[in-house]
Amino acid sequence: MRKFLAVAVLAAFCAVDVHAAAAELKILSGSAKVTKADGTVITVNAGDTIPSGSKVEVVAGEATFQSGSAVVKAEAGESFSYAATGGNPQITSHAGTITVSVGNTTATLEKGDGISVQGKGGQAAEIKVTSGEVTVAKDGKTETLATGGTSTAQTPPESVPVTQTQTSEPTQETASNQTTT
Predict the structure, then answer these.
(1) Do residues 55 and 79 make contact, with C-beta atoms less than 8 angstroms apart?
(2) pTM value?
């Protein structure tokens, strides 16, 4: 019984929402010019990370970025700012059309539009409009959300904390305790 309790406590302690761990934006493909919060300008390529408080401008082709379960796409000439508050990514478009996909939901941001993405645990995240009016597409339907509006996105299974696989360990431990008693 003690082993079961110890494993259950450990599993609960390790249940970390992966959305909350997102403190940086990672560029997955393409390249971009980044102006950091301190004014330093750098060029980033696939695999590089972009710190919170940065302005990102795609200089050629299309670039794809990721922060937690949020995937951001922008094309040459388009730009956006990235910030992370409490580990939750916030994206605001400065030029062009920026798309932010979270699982089954895609938000389209035009100049001045902004959103934040907050993990709700498990396989869900909340997209909240922080400025402007954002078009959100989900399950074949499209809606326009004003500032303060929200939409819940179902995130892919790989965004789920490891605890789902750990929940089977207490069951196995319990089963082995039952067979030996």
Answers:
(1) yes
(2) 0.74
